[in-house]
Specification:
By secondary structure, the protein is α+β, with helices and mostly antiparallel strands. The protein is 26% helix and 22% strand. Strands 1-2-3-7-4 form a 5-stranded antiparallel sheet, covered by helices on one side.
Length: 368
């Protein structure tokens, strides 16, 4: 079931990059949640192609809710959602199907599925299917909002340009990141990142980036130890996003160079509640939320589809070859991955909370 994620709140995605339709099925959403296509569409619009500094593929990504709702609320059944692919061009892929693109899953898919895989645009390995994740995440995000939980993500690095996220408050992420072409909350660094993307794109190249995600107002005690830790479940989901190659919680790798006296988050009482002076642990201790903001970063590799000539092989004659990828590709996938990171995080947290017995009490009892 590698196309499904979650235990109680479970999302299954389907479709291929150049197929007719892609979509998601959400199972386990409690009945009574107010949900409409406009809310899901708003999340999809943040991710869809055709935006500045992204692929020029023009997909409207207009969502249709096929089942699982009645009179504007979830009815307790599977919520099926779909969007059509309307602007796929498979001609280049047809001509180069036996020359695997470096950095893509073309070769591994060819071997695993014995050549029966859909090679057009990468098939179901394509970043196109992150739209399905966003659909499922939109439902999860709405569910979490009933408990006042917010999931915010923003770009903190593109290439060598980095943002000191310690200087960025939650309000800046909500206000500035949505207006930035690269989803960066620091306006000055956003302009620098835009210039960098234009530069690498003009050089037929690409660049990587990093995204920070914050989960706010998560209550203490969410999660479980060992294999069902909050970090384990979130990491599982985040690593399912194409191009993600690293995840670190809290201070992450910086902890490797700290002393215990520096790394430990000291406790104190604030407003009658336990709080921490620092948040090096990223809001998680023993796999369980500790009441601090849940904080992690995601490392995204450079877009593997670049215009420069690259070395590859010809699988028909088993000889060396060269390949120049044509088509429409992002110079950096990090900006469009921001809503995807929020979506997967929302799915993960909603699932863990339902597994922990949360009933989301603000759901209507009788649908009125």
């Amino acid at each position: 079931m590698s196309f499904s994620f979650g235990s109680i709140f479970r999302v299954t995605i389907f479709g291929e990059s150049h197929g007719k339709t892609i979509g998601a099925v959400v199972d386990g959403c409690p009945a009574g949640l107010q949900i409409c296509e406009d809310e899901i569409q708003a999340e999809l619009d943040r991710r869809r192609p055709g935006q500045p500094l992204s692929t020029s593929r023009r997909e409207q990504d207009s969502v249709r809710i096929m089942s699982g709702t009645f009179n504007g609320r979830s009815n307790g059944g599977p919520i099926a959602m779909a969007i059509d692919n309307t602007d796929a061009d498979s001609s280049w892929y047809d001509a180069n199907r036996f020359k695997p693109r470096p950095g893509h899953a073309d070769y591994t898919a060819y071997v695993k599925y014995r050549g029966f895989n859909d090679y057009r645009g990468g098939g179901f390995f394509s970043g196109r299917l992150t739209a399905c994740m966003v659909m499922g995440g939109a439902v999860a995000k709405k569910l979490l909002s009933l408990s006042g939980i917010k999931v915010l993500a923003h770009v903190v690095q593109i290439g060598d340009i980095q943002v000191d996220s310690r200087l960025i408050d939650d309000g800046q992420i909500e206000e500035n990141a949505v207006l930035s072409p690269v989803r960066c909350a620091d306006r000055g660094k956003s302009d620098q990142m835009v210039a960098e993307l234009k530069r690498v794109s003009g050089a037929n190249d690409s660049v990587g980036g990093a995204i920070e995600c914050r989960v706010l107002n998560l209550p203490v005690g969410v999660g479980a130890p060992i294999f069902d830790s909050l970090e384990s479940i979130i990491s599982h989901g985040i690593f399912s996003i194409p191009a993600v190659k690293a995840v670190e919680f809290g201070s992450g790798f910086k902890l490797s160079g700290m002393k215990g006296s520096e790394a430990n988050d000291a406790f104190y009482i604030k407003g009658g509640k336990v709080a921490a002076v620092t948040n090096n642990s990223g809001g998680i201790l023993g796999g369980i939320s500790d009441g601090m903001p849940l904080l992690f970063r995601v490392g995204v590799k450079p877009t593997p589809s670049i215009g420069a000539v690259q070395r590859t092989v010809d699988l028909r004659r088993m000889g060396n070859a060269e390949l120049q990828i044509e088509g429409r590709h992002d110079p950096c996938v990090a900006p469009r991955a921001v809503p995807v990171v929020e979506a997967i995080t929302s799915i993960s947290v909603a699932d863990v909370m339902l597994r922990s017995g949360c009933r989301f009490e603000r759901l209507a009892d009788n649908g009125e």
